[in-house]
Design a protein that fits this description.
By secondary structure, this protein is of the alpha+beta class. It has helices spanning 4-16, 21-39, 44-70, 131-137, 193-196, 217-223; strands spanning 89-92, 95-98, 106-111, 114-120, 127-130, 148-152, 155-169, 172-182, 190-191, 201-205, 208-212. The strands form 2 sheets. Strands 1, 3, 4, 5, 6, 7, 8 and 9 form an 8-stranded mixed β-sheet that branches. Strands 2-11-10 form a 3-stranded antiparallel β-sheet, with no helix packed on it. Strand 6 (148-152) and strand 7 (155-169) form a beta hairpin. The longest helix is centred in the first third of the chain and has 27 residues, at 44-70. The relative contact order is 0.16. The model is unreliable at 1-18 and 217-224 (pLDDT under 50).
């Protein structure tokens, strides 16, 4: 039996642990609850206090997980900028993306001011950038987030959530956009449905994808 794939998965999971403050907090809360249960008889007051702290800690972790999942659907999205979860906004004017020779829609964007190529993928739930792109554009893993497992051409990998402060192309600007930093993704960066679903509309006509954002930020601010 070949244990190499199992070992690789274990190594990836161990490497992912220190980068997820949320996961460490969950483990810490559970250990606190275990210690509290052991102390309930000899030290009832302290034991109950530790168990209560454990329960509150786990409830906090659960709340953060719910916030993370809600951001995948703009209908239920909750923004908490104080913990690194800003509102995801896509705005600007109509932009047309021509079909490339390989049969896909590609666009050249600026991520935090750096040029990046993206494949527009309607089958991808989240926007994904390679580790190389993340390093070049200053994207850092989000501490209060669980690692996301992604299936790539090289197998399943642990990807870490990040926030793109600004992404621009054509007449479109996106701010606070969630993305995942995916190792082994190669040179391909993917613009997924968490971007497209925040447009006023998008469609394909012939060999052109037409993206129609909501009104510019100044107009939105004036009407709010």
């Amino acid at each position: 039996m070949d244990f190499a794939p199992v070992w690789d998965q274990l190594v990836q999971s161990i490497h992912a642990l220190p980068k997820s403050g949320l996961l460490i907090a969950a483990v810490g809360a559970m250990l606190l609850g275990i210690v509290g249960s052991l102390l309930v008889r000899p030290l009832p007051a302290l034991g109950k206090l530790l168990r209560a702290a454990s329960t509150l800690g786990l409830m906090g972790v659960l709340l953060l997980v719910v916030l993370q999942l809600s951001r995948m659907d703009p209908r239920f999205e909750l923004a908490v900028p104080e913990i690194g979860l800003p509102q995801q906004v896509v705005e600007g004017g109509e932009t047309r993306v021509p079909l490339a020779g390989d049969g896909h829609f590609w666009l050249r964007a600026l991520v935090n001011g750096r040029p990046v190529n993206f494949l527009v993928d309607t089958g991808a739930t989240l926007t994904a950038v390679s580790a190389e792109t993340a390093a070049a554009t200053g994207l850092e893993p989000r501490n209060v987030a669980l690692p996301v497992r992604m299936q790539t051409a090289n197998g399943s990998v642990a990807a870490h959530l990040t926030t793109i402060e600004e992404l621009r192309f054509g007449n479109v600007a996106a701010r606070g956009l969630d993305a995942v930093i995916a190792p082994n993704l190669g040179p391909t960066n993917v613009l997924g449905m968490n971007f497209l679903s925040r447009l006023a509309s998008w469609r394909v006509e012939g060999n052109t994808m037409i993206l129609v954002p909501h009104h510019p930020q100044a107009e939105l601010a004036a009407g709010s």
